[in-house]
Write a structure and sequence with these properties.
Layout lengths: L1 H11 L3 H14 L4 H14 L2 H15 L5 H11 L12 H18 L4 H12 L7 H15 L9 H25 L3 H23 L10 H22 L1
Length: about 240
């Protein structure tokens, strides 16, 4: 407890390196306390100890059955994709990528996951550029859309409508990347046809719910998304026809 309290002091002082080392000592004294592991995970992100983030996440799942944080996962995916600089000269990107895919697989097995999670999962699988992974990616995209439209009465709130349309736009871009990476076979055509049907359903719902957004501050963004989705979907369909 003393080590953990000291770590909190260092965190308040914004001395993350000392907080990180102090939390390591705290874990030696109390390996079963999930709150310390959670603090360790977040401080590890701040100090760039990305392998330790993954280890802490596994431990949190051990202790709590599940743990979700899309923002942290997005950072880890950016590290895997080389979009965030890693200062350690001994950092092994290949092993990190393998660990990250294992973590995503475990999270997917124990928790209800968001649309963002499934898109991130698809992204790291696609990084392998393995044709055998195509079905896994398509499954992630399917689950991403299911999660997007799962929120009750999303069509009655302008902000929710904008979010759903944004997710749909992102998904179409992912399908386009899948076509470019894996080519077009029967499964791909089936998946894209399903995407077409589900996207058109969302567009129709958004159009029928115009009274909830036409006079809102989201109006311009939603109109732009409606046009953009139609254009992107038509381009996608042309590529698989």
């Amino acid at each position: 407890e003393a080590w953990n309290n000291l770590a909190k002091v260092y965190i308040k002082l914004n001395d993350k390196p000392r907080a990180w080392k102090t939390l390591q000592e705290a874990l030696k004294c109390n390996y079963e306390e999930w709150r310390i592991w959670e603090n360790y995970l977040f401080v590890s992100i701040d100090v760039g100890a990305f392998d330790d983030v993954i280890s802490a996440w596994h431990r949190l799942i051990d202790l709590k059955s599940k743990f979700n944080d899309d923002d942290v996962l997005e950072i880890l995916v950016k590290v895997d994709c080389g979009e965030i600089e890693v200062k350690s000269e001994t950092f092994n990107f290949q092993k990190f990528g393998e660990k990250l895919r294992t973590l995503f697989g475990r999270i997917a097995a124990v928790a209800m996951c968001s649309s963002t999670f499934w898109k991130l999962y698809a992204k790291i699988i696609m990084r392998k550029k393995n044709n055998e992974d195509c079905d896994k990616v398509l499954n992630c995209l399917k689950k991403s859309h299911q999660s997007t439209v799962a929120k009750a009465n999303w069509e009655k709130n302008a902000t929710d409508i904008e979010q759903v349309l944004t997710d749909c736009c992102d998904l179409i871009e992912y399908y386009q990347k899948c076509v470019e990476l894996y080519g077009v076979d029967t499964n791909m055509k089936t998946a894209i046809n399903s995407c077409r049907l589900s996207t058109n359903s969302v567009l129709k719902t958004a159009d029928m719910s115009m009274q909830y957004w036409e006079n809102s501050e989201n109006n311009e963004k939603i109109n732009g998304l409606l046009t953009g989705i139609n254009d992107k979907l038509n381009n996608l369909l042309l590529n698989v026809s």
